[in-house]
Design brief:
Layout: H1 12-20, H2 47-66, H3 75-94, H4 100-132, H5 141-165, H6 167-171, H7 174-179, H8 181-202, H9 206-212, H10 216-231
Helix pairs in contact: 2-3, 2-10, 3-4, 4-5, 5-8, 8-10
């Protein structure tokens, strides 16, 4: 039955629920709709918040680095920030997938982006090691976090490849590969936190403080936006919760 306004009277809670709905949706409720193009996953829900954060972060790094004369060190932060940008895209595009077909396509795009990001991360690592040359290695928080992060990135990539592409050969069965999916997701989100901590620590290095002056507050704002945007789209059931 409808009132004079045309609003059904037998479903009052529906309107109330919509009025109470957060502007960007509730945590973890963004799901790719059937037949919806997968690239919309990069912007649905709080993905727009994460996109703002990661592009601000990349812009801060690139502006700061390219404002100085080019050197052997120059590619290190440029490659690292580009790799991080790709990793955020890889997470955002896969999070809302629901159907088997969506998950299959999303996973292929996810791994393609992650593979490219790993290549960039490894290149950034090689460049900084070559740049150090025979000089004593720094044990700054950024240096220590960077080494731990690079190691974790490679391990995460290896596990991801094994569980999805060769689970039978390495793990014995496809089901064995599927059982570690949730741990791969957990470690992926932890790795994102570690990467962001490494970037924040970079603002406190002597080179940044004395030469390029990338602002800590700007980096912190960008990091918060990325973590909030990605974190709000986490589906607990995919983590085994």
């Amino acid at each position: 039955m409808a009132s004079a306004t045309g609003i059904p009277q037998d479903h009052p809670t529906t309107i109330e629920a919509r009025e109470d709905e957060p502007l960007l949706g509730r945590p973890g409720d963004v799901t790719q709709k059937p037949h919806e193009i997968i690239y919309r996953n990069l912007f649905t829900g709080t993905a727009s918040v994460a996109q703002a954060g990661i592009w601000i972060l990349a812009a801060l790094v690139w502006q700061g680095i390219l404002s100085q004369p080019l050197s052997l060190f120059t590619p290190h932060p440029l490659l690292g920030s580009s790799a991080l940008l790709l990793q955020v895209q890889a997470a955002l595009i896969l999070q809302p997938t629901a159907t088997p077909q969506q998950k299959r396509i999303g996973t292929r795009i996810h791994y393609s982006l992650q593979l490219l990001s790993v290549v960039l991360f490894v290149s950034a690592f090689v460049i900084i090691e070559v740049n150090k040359g025979s000089h004593s290695h720094s044990f700054s928080p950024h240096g220590i976090l960077g080494l731990v992060t690079y190691t974790a990135i490679v391990l995460q990539a290896v596990v991801g490849i094994i569980q999805y592409f060769v689970p039978v050969t390495v793990l014995g069965s496809v089901d064995a590969g599927k059982r570690i999916y949730k741990y791969h997701r957990w470690s992926g989100y932890v790795l994102l936190l570690l990467e962001m901590a490494t970037v924040v620590a970079a603002t406190q290095t002597t080179y940044n403080v004395m030469v390029i002056h990338i602002p800590l507050w700007g980096v912190l704002v960008a990091v918060v936006l990325v973590l909030a945007g990605v974190g709000a789209r986490i589906k607990k059931h995919k983590l085994g919760l």
